[in-house]
Amino acid sequence: MGYKYNRKDILKQGIDLMSQSGYHNIGVMEILKSMNIPKGSFYNFFNSKEAYIIEAIELYGAANLRLADRIEQMEHLNSLEKVKAYFSHLVQKNKAQNFKYSCFWGNLSTEVAGQNEKVSTAIQNQMTIIKERFVLWLTEAQEQNILIEVYTPTQIADFLYTNFHGAMVTMKYQQSAKPLEDFLEINFKLLSKK
To answer: Of 40, 56, 60, 160, whose Cβ has the fewest other Cβ atoms within 10 Å?
Structure first.
C-alpha cells in the first residue's frame, strides 16, 4: 500500500514552499504536485486556499510556541537571554537553509495580509501569542535589572519582532547572515544593562 498523506503533511509542505517562494508563486497545484497528491484530495481536507492558509498560519504558530516552550525550560539562561536564544535559533536555522527561506508569516504579511482581513487577523493572533511570551520574559528581565527601562516590555517585544522581520528581508536579498547577526549583536547590546 502506498503512502497515506494527511492534512498536517500538506500544511507543512505549503509552509515550506511559500517560505521559500512566496504566496503568489505557489498555488495549490504546486503544493500537491510536489507531494504527488491528486487535486481533488486537497478539497477533502480544506474548503479553499484561504482556509488552508489560515490553518497553515496556526500550525506555524504552534511550532514557534513549541520553540519558546523549549527555551523556557533552559534554566541556565536569564530572561533576556531567553529572548535572544529564541531569535538565535531562527538565525541558525536560516544559516543552515542557506538563506533560501523567509518567515512564513512575513511573506504572507507583505503579499496577502493587506488584501485579506482573515489572513491578516490570523497572522496577528499568532504573532500576539509569541510576543506575549517575549513580554513575560522582558518583564522579568526588567525586574532582574538586566534590561533597560526606558521602554515597556510590550514596546521592546514589538520592536524586536519588527526589526527581526526587516533583517530577514535583507538577509534574503543579500544572501548573507550579516543582517541577522547584526540584529542579535546590536539590539541585545543596546537593550542590556550589563
So the answer is: 40
